[in-house]
């Protein structure tokens, strides 16, 4: 794909727990459309249904063309692991991040697994 196709991708998006999303919003990544219906973040807690997480993941990775990087807490990604593992697009880049209560586990990271497979590890 040409760089022209990705020139409008200028937002970070986040799917994560309240602390992670709040921290990133305070850092300035938040974006809400004028009508207030489209956001670039989703706060996930124990009551959030898997279908809602998958719906927002689909929106950020397929439907929207303004997102360059999607950050997702690894423990949230675990809830939709089959969907995350199937994702292979370059844009938006998908990064699994740790949270305050859930440390990062490299063995679960779908991107790291793919890199290890490429190098035969």
What does this structure look like?
The chain is α/β, with parallel strands linked by helices and 121 residues long. The chain has a single domain, classed as ATPase, V1 complex, subunit F (Rossmann fold, 3-Layer(aba) Sandwich), CATH 3.40.50. 36% of the residues lie in helices and 17% in strands. It is built from five helices and four strands; from the N terminus they run βαβαβααβα. The chain has a four-stranded parallel sheet with strand order 2-1-3-4, sandwiched between helices. β1, α1 and β2 form a beta-alpha-beta unit. The protein starts with 10 loop residues before the first strand and ends with a helix. The mean pLDDT is 90.
Salient structural properties:
single chain, 121 residues, alpha/beta, Rossmann fold, 5 helices, 17% strand, globular, membrane
